[in-house]
Amino acid sequence: MDDLFSSEDDDHLFDLDYNPYARKRPLSSRLDRDDYDETDEEEANRQKLYLVPYRWWKEAQRSVADEIVGILYNVLSNYDNADSEIVLDLRKEESSGTRVKMDEGVSSREYALVKEALWLRTLKWHNDSKTSEEDDRYHCVAEGQSQEVFPLQIRLSFSPGTNSLLVKISLKDNAVDFYRRACSIFYSQSELLQIWDFSGQTSQFVMNEIINLPKFSPGKQGKEVLLELHVHGFFVFTNKTDERLAEPMKTENSFGKSRVRMNMNSDNLSSQLMLTNTSLSGSGYRGIGVLGFAGLQNLGNTCFMNSALQCLVHTTQLVDYCLGDYEKDINHENPLGMNGELSLAFGELLRKLWAPGAMPVAPRMFKFKLAKFAPQFDGYNQHDSQEFLAFLLDGLHEDLNRVKCKPYIEAKDAEGRPDEEVADEHWLNHLARNASIIVDIFQGQYRSTLVCPVCKKVSVTFDPFMYLTLPLPSTTMRTMTLTVFSTDGIMLPMPFTITVPKGGRLKDLIDSLSLACSLKDDETLLVAEVCS
């Protein structure tokens, strides 16, 4: 049998470092360890997978310039033991490695499997656009409505006999409410169920299985791996309001565990899905709400760092970049860089701050990485925010510089050429050695003119800059208080406070005072200074 999972694009589509067997212990158990390292949590966050409606995901990809490639699976559902277990048979479409075409229609039974960063970017796009699309089958939640995420424990294995992936969703591994929703999502009698994998995890899982099981046996199934899948955006919708969806019948078995009997009659269960508010209980549900409204905890005199970080993590272009696949741009060969450690720490911190329902984040790991490469920021002393920002931007640029080998380019003099031509030439020379998201967003160039005092030759160059040091503007005005007497003695002496230029003349004082005391046309002012 031909290997349906092989693809010419597999080598560059998927992260080959992913190891599905290196399953991490739950975070609660890792926190109890004395040797707990926050890098464990950072790594665990990068492995999160999300199942979302494909249409919801695809709508946000219209603004992405990169070509989108995914693996398409046709899903066969087995509901013989639906009261306790769902079995899904995922078989790869022959045309997989397919590039997504934005003008194609989308079935309501198409789902997408994405990594957390891609899910966050899509979620942010929908929040930013504040768009709403509604038809008979689908509704995209507006900003004021609640969207929820719930965890689903699945058991993944490879079947060599059918050359397919088997996914088991069991009641014993999940809460009753979550299992009910899983049955509602994956149940279909008529319409074909399809799942797009844009994470690369399934393909890599199969490759590891083939390596570990060199001798296939039709009757032998691969090792089951327990994974956690985060499900977002699904709720079953019925056409009749008086119908109750999949009414559970709970009975106690001999082991004291509740069993759920699902009524899978097609008259009671609609195959239409929508996003909506739900009242289902469970610790896995969380309202998404507004994104990016998380704070940074003060670790001790770290206001200088937090203020600069908040400015950067709310720079729109940088947020979209870090929520994408920015790891591919990390330059590990750059001797001026930090082997990607600073950019990875910044990216993970940004994703935490943009996570739905995020609580205030303690940037300890980021500060640890910062102090590793800039010892002056170690400890808890006060520092200059601009000094920190300059180092961070420069470090991110070198880590993410797409230029692997910097060419030597000799700068040419203007020699009377138009400024536009000279500016473009200097900028292209700069980009030939420096090309990163930091250059795209934060760098520009200014015109520098140098005149020789001897021969009066004028040299014009255009130099790149990332920040400008400017003097604080000082005021050029001063206030003065004067007392006005009338010569006829009718008016009492009255003080007036006026504003005049610091280097002004007596005429400026008289003009301002004339306006302040409403001097008439036939009246004049005589100014006298009283000394000692």
From TrEMBL:
Which InterPro entries does the UniProt record give?
Papain-like_cys_pep_sf, Peptidase_C19_UCH, Ub_carboxyl-term_hydrolase, Ubiquitin_UBP8/5, USP, USP_CS
Q: USP domain: from which residue to which, for each copy?
A: 294-532
- Tell me the GO BP annotations in alphabetical order: protein deubiquitination
Entries under Gene3D superfamilies matching the protein: Cysteine proteinases (3.90.70.10)
The source's domain of life comes to: Eukaryota
The record's listing under Pfam families reads: Ubiquitin_UBP8, UCH
> What is a single molecular function from GO for this protein?
cysteine-type deubiquitinase activity
Q: Which family does it belong to?
A: Belongs to the peptidase C19 family.
Q: Can you name this protein?
A: USP domain-containing protein
Q: Which organism is it from?
A: Gossypium aridum
